[in-house]
Amino acid sequence: MSSTLRVLFFHGLGSSINGRKSLYLAKHFPNSYTPHLKPYYLLPLAFWRAIIAIYHFKPDIIVGTSFGGFILMLLLQRQVWNGNTILLAPATGLLFKKRLWLPKDHRKNIVIVAGRNDKTVPLEGLTELQQSSRDNIRFLVVEDDHRLNKSMIEQDQLRNLINANSQPPMTTNKINNYFDCIKLWLSCMFCLVVSFIREPFTLYHTIKRLRKIRREIIETH
Q1: How far is CA 208 from CA 202, 203, 205, in A?
Q2: pLDDT at 221
Q3: Can you tell me the distance from the alpha carbon of 17 to that of 172, in angstroms, rounded to the nearest whole number?
């Protein structure tokens, strides 16, 4: 199955197309693809690249980690993507607390993976996300930190999760041409603007907390 699955990967804030998870997926899934989502401060560009990747690549499953999980969750909310999904410590609630939800009518497998020792994306927020979602959401807590490299890569759990949650598509892709890409991108941009208006200080406080965590990590080393 691994040799034929089309796996699309949205990398995180501290990673890239040559990151550890991207290389892991390229090794185990020859048909995997990781779009370049940087620079992160250009959110509109990151979302456009993600939507275009779905349109061109036509994945069987999408994996999003941290910031990439934030992008993927918003694409799920706006029905840009309605297929099989794996969210690795998605940072949606970290950026916009009122964006911490998944569509009620989602008919695909969704797996949320959370690290018990994650200091960046709190476990409590992801637990709340799982409790407010339907039964098709699988919530997996692992003994790991935010990067989830030990559990997902070293213990090879990511490959098993992808193979176990890549059911044949039940619905058709909504993106049939570039005009659809533009419409869906505009829909995502509207949601981002509304989120910034509703939560103007959430991102500010998150950045302060992340800087504090980074300083603590540097001091302990």
Answers
A1: 10, 9, 5
A2: 46
A3: 28
Q: Is residue 1 part of a domain?
A: no
Q: Which residues of the chain have pLDDT under 50?
A: 221
Copy the structure tokens of residue 93: 């609630």
Number of domains in the chain: 1
Reduced to 3 states (helix: H, G, I; strand: E, B; else coil), residue 219 is: helix
Q: Facing residues of 155 across strands?
A: none
Amino acid occupying residue 129: L
Q: Is 5 helix (H, G, I), strand (E, B) or coil?
A: coil
Residue 107's pLDDT is what?
A: 56
Neighbouring C-alpha atoms within 13 Å toward the C-beta of 178: 0
Distances (CA, A) of 59 to 34, 39, 63, 78, 148: 11, 23, 10, 18, 23
Q: The domain containing residue 12 runs over which residues?
A: 7-220
